[in-house]
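G., before I forget:
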Amino acid sequence: MTRIDILTVVPELLESPLNHSIVQRAKNKKLVEIHIHDIREYGKGNYHQVDDYSYGGDAGMILMIEPIYKLITKLKEERNYDEIIYMSPDGEVLNQPIANHLSCKENIMILCGHYKGIDHRIREHLITREISIGDYVLSGGELAAAVLCDSIIRLIPGAISDETSALSDCFQDNLLSAPVYTRPAEFNGWRVPDVLLSGNPKLIAQWQEEQALERTRLLRPHLLDD
Ligand code: SAH
């Protein structure tokens, strides 16, 4: 079973994305366990302070080192982590190979930043990997962590009922997917490609391959260079 621990100051933001659909089914099937930890519980003093002003006087609050250190240390005492990931706009940009790689791990910890970010010493001394979900800035790492979790969990064998379904997705073989259709065969005069109605598996497979290659060439040519 894969175990994912997520550290956040806004646990509420993670509720909906990780409690439905394929992720929820994977949890029900005991393929994955997700534990969400509120950094605030480890905050300083009566007010459970977790953020403070930045040295150098820049605007915006920074998540403090102490509460995060306490929480990470406690979790590390309980088990070994394969990766301790910080969600960060300047991290390596998430892609399918990274998701594939992480889906084979047993214990993953994910730290979400908030406000202006986190004390850099956490990144220097406690984090093993930094991942971004794209070149834009979010208000917090929670939605990014949910994206990362979803991309990992759907790849765990058994998470998707049709085992081949995740394998035929975009990027899995460095190609985009062929277009897909369902009934009716004609709507508003818009027809499904004839080949898909032919009942000939060989012709269909050939068409799908051509389409995948053509769409990749058109929309993500760099995938063909790799
Ligand atoms: N001042 C920081 C941004 C802070 S945004 C900077 O310029 O780099 C607040 C938090 O949101 C970050 O700590 C990070 O955890 C998360 N975040 C923002 N954009 C993200 C992205 N593209 N991918 C992953 N996490 C992101």
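The first helix runs from residue 21 to 28. The chain has a mean pLDDT of 96.

More on Monday.
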